[in-house]
Amino acid sequence: MKSASTTTLSPAQSATKEKVASQGVMRPALVLFAGLTLLCGVIYPLAITGIGKVAFPDQASGSLIVQNGKLIGSRLIGQEFSAPNYFWGRLSATSPMPYNPQASGGSNFGPSNPALIDAVKGRIDALKAADPGNTLPIPVDLVTASGSGLDPEISLAAAYYQAGRVARERKLNVDTVRGIIDSLKLQPSLGFLGEPRVNVLALNLALDRQAPAAH
Fold first, then answer.
1. In b/e form, how buried is each residue of 133-164, taking b as 16+ CB within 10 angstroms?
2. Which of 81, 83, 79 is nearest to 169 (CA)?
3. Taking the chain, what is the end-to-end CA distance rounded to the nearest angstrom?
4. Distance between CA 159 and CA 141 in Å, rounded?
């Protein structure tokens, strides 16, 4: 019975064989890496951006509000209004300034935190000082910050609460102001998510068109 013969490779031959095997594995891996990079990093983003620009041009561009050729803001990010002749939005806990999109976030204060209680009391005092004759209950979204700190909208109750003050400061009939609110009312998303609301910036711009504020 003959025994199987074995062939011993020299160190140089072994190194060559390992190099060939390595190249056989690396080449398809590099091709796959390059292909996926091109597909996922270039083609897919360009395709999605192009579809967005065509199908949803306003949203894809940031939902920007332009007036008289000037960029005023975005429907997606709130702005600070404190003058009594404007509607006020939700509090913003972002720093170093309110509604800072680069520092989105809430205060993270718990309901028993004295800092939160003081902030709510301060906003209540400001609302009552600006409209001392208003006996309506103050909606919670006027005295608390949103989770993002960028919320551009308030509830209809929050808008109606401020209608009397704004009408008085603008020398408008309160029904006219309420009509502006109703004309800009946004329905719940998908018809059932959330509640009816209004965009504060769009509301104040509509007010300025109706009765320009004195500056």
1. eeeeebbebbbbbbebbbbbbbbbbbbbbbbb
2. 83
3. 110
4. 10
Measuring CA to CA, how many Å separate 177 from each of 123, 161, 164, 211? 23, 11, 8, 10
> Taking a C-beta distance cutoff of 8 angstroms, is the pair 198, 159 a contact?
yes
- pLDDT tens per residue, range 39-56: 999 999 999 998 988 888
The amino acid present at 61, given as its one-letter code, is S
Maximum Cα–Cα distance for the chain, whole Å?
116
Q: How many beta carbons lie within 10 A of that of residue 129, not counting itself?
A: 9
Mean of the per-residue pLDDT values of the chain: 87
Contact 142, 127 (CB under 8 A): yes
CA distance 161 to 178: 10
Global pTM reads: 0.74
